[in-house]
Amino acid sequence: MHCHPVLFQMNKVNMKFVIKNIAKSSGRLGQLRIKEDVELSTPLLMQTTKGGSIPYLSAEVFEMLLKQQQQQQFLLQLTLCSMDQMAESLGQWSRSLCDYVGYPGQSTLLLLRDPCEATPTGGNDRDVVPMFTRRGKEALTAKRYMEMVAQFRPDVYQGMCDADTHPESTKKRVQKSVDRTEKFMEECYAEQAGKQESFSQCTMLAPLVGGYSTYARTQSIQHARKQPSESYGGYIFEGFHTNGLAATNLKSEQLLPIVEHCMQQLETDKPRFMPGAFTPPLTLELIRLGADVFDTSYAYLAAANYKALTFNYDKDAVPAVQAVFLDVTDDELKEQFTPLLSNCSCLACRQHTRAYLHHLYKTHELLGPILLMMHNLHHYLGFFEVIRTQLAQDELPQLLALLTSQGSYSIQPNTKVIAKAAMGKGFSSNAA
Amino acid sequence: MSTAKIPPLTYKVIAECSVSKARAGLMTLRHSEVRTPVFMPVGTQGTLKGVLPDQLIELDCQILLGNTYHLGLRPGIETLQHAGGLHNFMGWPRAILTDSGGFQMVSLLELAEINEHGVNFRSPFDNSECMLTPEHSMQIQNAIGADIMMQLDDVVKTTTTGPRVEEAMERTIRWVDRCIKAHARNDDQSLFPIVQGGLEIPLRERCVTALMEREVRGFAVGGLSGGESKHDFWRMVDVSTNHLPRDKPRYLMGVGFAADLVVCVALGIDMFDCVFPTRTARFGCALVNKGQLNLKHQKYKHDMQPIDAACGCSTCKRYTRSYLHHIATNESVSCSLLSVHNVAYQLGLMSSMRDAVQRDEFPQFVREFMAEHFDQEPIPTWIREALAAVCIELPADATIETKVEISAPTSPPKDLKLSS
């Protein structure tokens, strides 16, 4: 049978994952090789994007920020719902996806939904998942979804799933999400197998759904594990939350048992992706349970709501307990000519003051979110550096204790923010 | 302070065009050297929208404009004083120029009313009545601490005619004396008077003569670029530069379209400002020599070239028109990307003009620029006339109609002409 060698070639998984160390009470350290010359340490922070760009930041500005970081390579988390209209252009683009979005040489992962924005509920069907774009809702079949993935050619992409579940979902809704996901995934695997040249450079992640039901989660995992191991390169956890700020309000006592239940059933050598704006303490708990890859949507959501991240993750800092956030809308900042966070080496803190950031908020100037995003990303990337260092010494519990002593990390929407900074239809052209 | 002995502004002509009135100069300010002719991007509220100070430095921007009216309202004089001035407040180490605040009142506020004392207006925030006087304008600008500040002038619509124009011009002269008297930091900041006089040559001449009797380090030409005919516009610039002293910088307020910049440099202007390059960026438009590309247009959807292959800005180095088409006006980062390009374009154009003047090849530069800018469209008469007035003759419009467009897919299409 000559389909055999073909299958072998087609199922080649490009992404490689090596566990370097499993710490007893801290989680796992690994190396994720997405493509040649791109080697990333896990626990890894993916860069969340909107329309292919890191929110508010041009590539030039992001690279200014990156100069302060140890790791110069990163994984861009792109979302189909914010880039769908680019599919046709990308079909004509001869270079790679990372070049198109302005980050040559970096690696890309394509998600269906945007972890930064609350995904509306509903619109799921036996044959389609809804994609909520700028222009409204579009019903995606698995075939259409895979066509678009083929046009994008990301290094990594997720399999299609019904992820419309959250802590309060009914049993029936949860079961539907599992059953439909199985069906979608059968079609995705078939598409992948049928179009080897389109997908030869792309690694698929198997979605795990099932809300907060151990039974449903097990069923979803079993379906994924039934597939030949080479047909997907890792797992992506879906259906714990419906994106946006909701993820910052998840209760650990609800989330952790179900995640632990899942982790026990997964083989160790595949990376586990956990998109969404989990709070920093919850992120540590998820890492302890064996999650490997997260994203920067938490840093974004804080910036979008005019909060600078100021929680302390340095065990030697004095005082150890600091405020979790600095609210830039606070009128008390009006004449505080000090950095957002003292001793922070990010460009926003080196060159600008709280008073200036407050002024930019008051005047709805676009530079406000830019500087906040720079600070928050710098802070969060530093947090992940510390996570990896502490994890190597099995000291994540101490880090978690330091974090939880500082207060609540959930992000409340900033109702004072009038419009998304001077953009879109709300252009305020009140300049001179 | 030792710096107090050096004037806060020195200006030196480095080269002059042997044909036109164009000149290249070096202006030395407390915070920066500024090579002229210069375009000053507008950072209305203490920021150039969506662009970091470091990015502006990377673009070799030497001077920014701030708006006194906006800054006086937010963050307010007190905060600016406590911050140690606008440079500190916004983290911009190079030079700043501020306007007087008067123009915004007249253009933004319906309720502004001008009398001899000053400009009476209603605050847009708390609806209280305020009066902006020449003294008050100086006080705010002293707090802002810009390298160059503007006198409060009596602004009338450029289309106004009759005795009101003369009254405004005369009042502007009276107000400059009040400004000079009220200016508290003459050792750090240079106050420019503003040439007014509407669209009447004798009034402009009279105003220039009167202002030249004052001790100032540079001059602004105001009251133009507000909807008057281009025919009048260039003549007012021309008559002003004819009389202004050679050894002081001349600033034409509110002018920034590419063709206008080239004409007015030929007429002897050294400094310009305009919100257009950054405002148009927010609407998805990118500036190129041929005009501007409206990137939202469908024809750029699959256009895989940069905005301008010859441009060295960070946007053109990385992004295609196609990608920019998709994110323009949708993602806020598009404002930053297009603003960087558009500022780079403006600064590049000025730099080309300075080089051309220094090589004494400015007339040739003008001819090449106009040919490219207007491509196959006729060059407007006012431009021909203005340039002829300074002895730069443009060739007759091309009569070769059927220019074969070999490079049809690659040549940037023309969306919008920048001419009036």
From the structure above, extract its key features.
heterodimer, A: 432 residues, alpha/beta, TIM Barrel, 2 domains, three-stranded antiparallel β-sheet, disordered N terminus, B: 420 residues, four-stranded parallel β-sheet, 15 helices, globular
CATH homologous superfamily identity of the largest domain in chain B: Queuine tRNA-ribosyltransferase-like
Low-confidence stretches of chain A: 1-11, 418-432
Secondary structure tally: strands of chain B: 17
Rough outline of chain A: globular
Please tell me how large the radius of gyration of chain B is: 21 Å
What is the CATH third-level topology name of the largest domain in chain A? TIM Barrel
Gap between N and C termini of chain A, in Å?
74 Å
In total, the number of domains of chain A comes to 2
CATH class of the largest domain in chain B: Alpha Beta
- The CATH topology assignment of the largest domain in chain B is TIM Barrel
CATH class of the largest domain in chain A: Alpha Beta
Please state the second-level CATH architecture of the largest domain in chain B: Alpha-Beta Barrel
Total discrete domains of chain B: 2
Please characterize this protein's 3D structure.
By secondary structure, chain A is an alpha/beta fold. Chain A has 2 domains: 3-303, TIM Barrel; 305-410, no CATH class. Chain A contains 16 helices and 15 strands. Chain A has helices at 3-10, 59-66, 80-83, 87-92, 97-100, 142-152, 171-194, 196-199, 214-226, 252-263, 280-288, 297-304, 347-351, 354-362, 367-392, 396-404; strands at 16-23, 27-35, 38-42, 44-48, 75-79, 107-111, 128-133, 136-141, 156-158, 203-208, 234-237, 272-273, 293-295, 307-309, 325-327. In chain A, the strands form 4 sheets. Chain A has an 8-stranded parallel beta sheet. In chain A, strands 1-2-3 form a 3-stranded antiparallel beta sheet. In chain A, β2 (27-35) and β3 (38-42) form a beta hairpin. In chain A, α14 (354-362) crosses α15 (367-392). Chain B has helices at 53-58, 68-83, 86-90, 102-108, 134-144, 163-182, 201-212, 230-243, 258-266, 276-282, 314-318, 321-327, 333-358, 362-374, 381-389, and strands at residues 9-16, 23-29, 33-36, 38-41, 63-66, 95-98, 113-114, 119-122, 129-132, 148-150, 190-192, 194-195, 219-221, 250-252, 271-274, 285-288, 291-294. In chain B, 56% of the residues are buried. In chain B, the strands form 5 sheets. Chain B has a 5-stranded parallel beta sheet with strand order 4-15-14-13-12. Chain B has a 4-stranded parallel beta sheet with strand order 5-6-10-11. In chain B, α6 links the parallel β10 (148-150) and β11 (190-192). The radius of gyration of chain B is 21 Å and the shape is globular. Chain B is α/β, with parallel strands linked by helices and 420 residues long. Chain B is built from 15 helices and 17 strands. Chain B has 2 domains: 2-280, Alpha-Beta Barrel (TIM Barrel); 283-389, no CATH class. In chain B, α7 packs parallel to α8 (230-243). Residues 402-420 of chain B have low confidence and may be disordered. Chain A: Residues 26-401 form the tRNA-guanine(15) transglycosylase-like domain. Chain A: It is found in: Cytoplasm.
